[in-house]
Amino acid sequence: MNFKFPGNARFVRMLAACSLAVIAACSQQEQTEPAAVVAEQAAIVQPAGVESFTAMISGNRVGQMEVQHGDVTNVGYEYRDNGRGPSVEEVIEFNDEGVPRSWRVAGATTFGNVIEEQFEIQGSRAFWTDTTGSSESDMAEANLYVAQESSPYALWVYARLLLADDDNTLAVLPAGELKLEAIESLNVTSSSGAALAITTYALSGIDLNPSYFALDDSGLLFASMNERFALVRTGFEAEEERLRNMAAEYATRRFETIQEKVTRVFDKPVRINNVRVFDPISLSLSELASVLVTENRIAAVDDVVQAANADEILIDGAGGTLVAGMYEMHAHAGQGSALLNIAAGVTSFRDMGNNNEVLSDLIAKIESGRLVGPRINRSGFIEGKSPFNSNSGILVSTQEEALDAVRWYADQGDFHQIKIYNSMNPAWVPAMVTEAHARGMRVSGHVPAFTNADAMIAAGYDELTHINQVMLGWVLAPDEDTRTLLRLTAMKRFPAIDINSPAVQLTISGMAGRGMGIDPTLAIHENLMLSRNGEVAPGMLDYIDNMPVGIQRNARTARSEIATPEDDIAYRQGYAKILETVREMRDQGVVIIPGTDLGGSFTYHRELELYQEIGMSAAEVLRMATLDMASYLGQADELGSIAPGKLADFFLIPGDPIADLKAIKTISLVVKDGNFYFPSDIYPEFGIRPFTDAPEILNR
């Protein structure tokens, strides 16, 4: 499914890596201190005419935005990647101070939820309706409304008001505040060779990470960008890669600053005392013990010590539980979520498709210590070119190109598998599988359009990705196109599936007979099928109150269009059928692979909880998330359990996760590669209220 939000209305979120050299490459003549530009842009001026922008993902044009100014400002924004994307139409009316007095947004979100948002000021009151419901407020609280489903043009709406404010910070509706920070000034060049001065900014305050964008020297929007997506003024498309690299570098610098504050560095071995250790083999907790970490290894698991040793740092585990670091097996790694996954006890990723250069850079930064993040295991993403293709990995147009892509990934030496995607020609798959296996790589993936899971099983897949990809073969006609949103909307047909039917049993027994795995991504299906406008999504109930206001707002938003009461029932029953199917697969011996496709972290905790609904005990779930996945990736000698000699990747929780798996949401300490982190230090840096206190360090 590749559940991403590049460039959409909830701000540009996906932040990844680029090298410091990219920024340094800008000449000193091009760069200036941004403060002077801020002062020049402080005046509120209403633009005129038309502004045009091109949306680009990893160098490919995928959409556009056009802004028409008159008595009101009309914005049209749309892009398509992987067969989907948002379509937004906005009408904004400004008062003389540049504040929107009315703002109407209509269209559809990336996954089809209908947008009907409106805001209006009437006298001294503000009224608005979004997906969470209708609200109102006295204008004394704030005079700037943050639209929930707007286009990236909203960045300019906010920025010009923030620039006019003395401290570039404003209280906003529905809640919270926005803060603007100028980063740097530089010159860009159009396709005709004309130079333009721009200033880049970070906008923060209501989401986990800032949005990065640029204004020109007249104060008009020039671009919004992250490491994968850029919306850039038409005529300046050649600057897209440079802008993405800059945004990635800004994010890297931010995370460097955070990790300098939150990484605990000790000059002695560290002993975590008075803890129970989860044993994934016996599925039990040990008696109270102590665990000694020397450099990046577990040196010993000993009895509880009664007093601190002068040669050790002693941390009081207070009777809590130590669990080995967990594996998020369906990640699309980016630096924006790296540290948050560490705080959640996720110390290893399996990346399931990415911009290869961006991911290489991220891995280099993590391995060098510049960034804190999970260990990353790479999958080689291969997609067929089509009007609906994804823009990750390598795109191919012929079988020979597909085989060359397999060979390229094999030659790199650090890809353990290939992942085949929706637009691949099914006829090419058997040869791709043969080549991958011959080169020592596994094969996983979606079921390409116009075929079914049975054909991919016969072709030699080792693993199927997303449970809906398997189940669609039981409900679709051969000519129905799953490169579109149909692969999601057709899940309404799942209630009609009979698990005991010959067709279903043929698929499941075929998977089990070959020892195949299923990466079901239950949490994303729950999110797509059970979230409703105005209701907190089921998977977020336990932590929503700790999150920034923007996340709380989005948690009350449906992902799919629920047009009728019949749709509501069909999606709910369809999700129940998904659980029934995964339960049957597990019962028959299909290997279950836990991953989210939602960024991991808090949603990974939810993913694990959902496996209890297919009959797994909490202890079995923890074993799956740790030792089983370490074994699946051939890493059990180093990771997956807490034992002398293994790498020091584990986390501490106050409670007993065998008795209540929800205990993993209250992590007080994480050790990754011998470095120590307290989530209570990390979470406030992202606007998150911590879930528990840090453990006590008894001597330093």
Per CATH, which architecture of the largest domain? Alpha-Beta Barrel
Number of domains: 3
Question: What is the CA-CA span between the terminal residues?
Answer: 47 Å
- Structural shape: globular
- CATH C-level category of the largest domain: Alpha Beta
Main pleated-sheet profile: 15 strands, mixed
Query: Looking across the biggest beta sheet, what order are the strands in?
Result: 8-7-6-5-4-3-2-1-15-14-13-12-11-10-9
Query: Residue share in helices?
Result: 25-40%
Strand content: 25-35%
At the fourth CATH level, what is the homologous superfamily of the largest domain? Answer: Metal-dependent hydrolases
* Poorly predicted ranges: 1-31, 35-42
Number of strands: 35
Structural class: alpha/beta
Number of helices: 18
Remind me, CATH topology of the largest domain?
A: TIM Barrel
Rg over CA atoms: 25 Å
